[in-house]
Amino acid sequence: MLGGDLAFFVTLGFVAQLVDGALGMAYGLIATSVLLASGAPPAAASASVHAAEMVTTGLAGTSHIWHRNVDWRMVRRLAPAGVIGGIIGAYVLTELPEEPVRVFVTVYLLGMAFLLVRRLVNGQVERKRAVRVVPVGLGGGFLDAIGGGGWGPIVNSTLIAQGESPRHSIGSASVCEFFVTTAISATFIMTLDLATYGRIVLGLILGGALAAPFAGWFSRVLPQRVLVSLVALVVTGLGVYNFTRLGG
Prior knowledge:
The chain has 248 residues and is an all-alpha fold. 81% of the residues lie in helices and 0% in strands. It has helices at residues 6-23, 27-37, 42-66, 72-91, 98-122, 133-146, 151-161, 166-191, 194-221, 224-245.
C-alpha cells in the first residue's frame, strides 16, 4: 500500500477534497478510511492525512475567499478559538478516554442533524440570529485534536443549525480550518517519515490542489436549501458511522 500507485492517492485526495471543499467537512474521514481499508497502518494514515490537510485546507479556504463565501467577522472570532481549542486538545488533554468522547460526538452530531432537518422542514435556511462562534470554535478545535470528531462536522453543523448562512458558514469554517489544522498538525510533521509516507502525502496534496478551486464555486452556486440538505446528510452519516464504532 505505502508504495502504491501515486495516481491512487491523487484520486483519493481529489474526491475527499471535492466533498470537503463544497460542504466544509469529511476530508479526514474519507481519506483516512480509504487508506486504512487499503492497508496503511493507522499512524501512517493519520499522519499523512494531517500533513496533506495543511496544504489542502489553505487552498480550499483561498477558493472560498475568491468566491466571497467568507464572513470575516466570524473568522476573526472563530479561528483563534479553534486554534486554542486544538492546542488544548493536542497538548494538554490527550489522555482523555476515547470511548466517552466518541459517545459524546455521536450524540452531538445526531442532535445537530435533527436540528438541520427541522430547519429544512420549517423552511428556515437563511440566517435568523447571531451565532456565538467562540464556544463553537473552542469545541470544534478541541474535539478535532483529540480525535473525537472533525472540525467541519462539529463547527458547520452547529453554525448552520443555529441559523448561520450555510454558504458563509462553510466558507468561513474552511478558512479557519487552515489555522486549526496547522496548529494541531505540527507534531505530525515533525514525526512523519517522508521517505516512507511521502508518496501518500504528495498524492493527497496534488489531488486536493486539483479539487480545491471547485470548493468555493460549489458553495456559491448551490441553493441554500440544497447545502443544508447535503450538510444534514453528511452529518447524519458521520453520526451513524461513529455509532457503529462504539464498543469496537
